[in-house]
Amino acid sequence: MLKKILQPKILKFLVGGGVSAIINLLLIFLLIEKFSFNTPLLRNIANIVSIEISLIFSFFIYRVWVWTGGIWTFREVILRQLPLYHISAGAAVIIRVFILFPTLDWLGVKYIVNTIIGVLLSASINYLISDRFVFKSPKNNNSYQPQSSSEVYYPEALAPALSSNSRPRNKVNTANLAPIKTLSIVIPAYNEEDCITPTVSTITQFLEQKNIGYEILIVNDNSRDNTEHILRNLHFENNRVRYINNYYPNGFGFAVRCGLENFQGDAVAIVMADGSDAPEDIVSYYEKLAEGYDCIFGSRFIKGGKVIDYPSHKLIVNRLANLFIQILFGLNFNDTTNAFKIYRREVIEGISPLISHHFNLTVELPLKSIVRGYNVATVPITWKNRVAGVSKLKLKEMGSRYLFIVLYIWLEKHLSRGDYHRRKKIAVINSNAKSNA
Question: What architecture (CATH level 2) is domain 162-424?
Answer without folding.
Answer: Alpha-Beta Complex (3.90)
